[in-house]
Amino acid sequence: MSDLFPPFAPDPNEPRKRLFKPVPFRMIAPNIITLIALCLGLWAIRLAFDGQYERAVVAVIVAAFLDGVDGRIARLLKGTSRFGAELDSLADFLNFGVTPALILYSFVLHELGRVGWIGSIVLAIAAALRLARFNVMIDDPNRPEWKKNFFVGMAAPMGAMCALLPLYLSFLGIPIQDSSVAPVILIYVVGIAFLMVSTIPTYSGKTMGKYVPRQWVLPIFVLSVAAFGLLVSFPWEMLSLITVVFLLTIPISVMRYRKLDRHDATSDAEDKPSPSGIEPPPVA
C-alpha cells in the first residue's frame, strides 16, 4: 500500500502559485479617491445631526470636487474599470442624494413634519434615478459627439450644490430656519429634484478646454487664482452666486441644445440618399 501512495515532501524552493493576479496601483488609486469622497458624505450626515452645518456643507463640496477628479485620474492613468464605475455611482447616490436630503431635513425641513420628510425622500430618489439614467445613456454608441457637452437633466453633484442654497443663505445671515420659510424651501428642493430627473439639457463643459488659444493662457491663470481666492475668502457668497448663475444659464443651455439638435437633424436629412437612388439636381 505504501508503494501506491509514497510520501511526498514539497520543495521549499518552489514558488507558490498566486490565487489572484496582482492589481496595478493605477487601477486602485481612483477607487481610493472615490472611497474618500464616500467617507466625506457619511461624515457630513453626522456633522449635520450634530448641528455643525457649515462643516457638513464643506464636506459635501469637497466630495463633489473629488467626484470630478477621480474619473479624470482614472482616464489619465488608464485605470478605468467596471468596478470603479459602479463604486463611483453608488458614492454619488449617497454623497449627492442621501446626504443633502438628510442635511436639509435636519436643517429646516423637519419643521414641516412628514411633508418635509417626503420632500427629502424625493430629492434622494431623484438623484438615484438621475444616476441610473446616466449609466444607461453613457453606453449609447450612437450618441452624437456634440451631446457630450450637455447633461440630460441636472447632474447629481450640481443638484446637491444647488439644493444646499438655503444653507448658504443662512450662513450669510438670512433667516432661513423658520417654519414660515420652510414651505418655500420645500418647493425649491422639489424643483431641484425635478430638474435632476427631467430631460432638460444642462451644459456639462466636459469637452471644454481641450485646446486653449495662446493669448488666453495667462488671463485664464489670473482668473483661476482670483476665483479660488474669492471662494476661500467669501465661500458662502461665492457658492450662492455660482448656484444662482448656474440656474440662470439653464435656459441658455436649452436654446443651445435645440439649435445644435436642429442642425444635426438637417445634416442627417441632407446626407440621406433619395429613395430612387438618384441625387436631385442642385437648385440654381
Automatic annotation (TrEMBL):
Disordered: annotated span: 265-284
GO molecular function: phosphotransferase activity, for other substituted phosphate groups
Coiled coil: none
Subcellular location: Membrane
TM region(s), chain numbering: 25-45, 57-77, 89-109, 115-138, 150-169, 181-204, 216-232
Membrane topology type: Multi-pass membrane protein
Domain CDP-alcohol phosphatidyltransferase C-terminal: residue ranges: 215-251
Keyword line: Lipid biosynthesis, Lipid metabolism, Membrane, Phospholipid biosynthesis, Phospholipid metabolism, Transferase, Transmembrane, Transmembrane helix
Gene Ontology BP annotations: phospholipid biosynthetic process
GO cellular component: membrane
Similarity comment: Belongs to the CDP-alcohol phosphatidyltransferase class-I family.
Protein name: Phosphatidylcholine/phosphatidylserine synthase
UniProt lineage: Bacteria, Pseudomonadati, Pseudomonadota, Alphaproteobacteria, Hyphomicrobiales
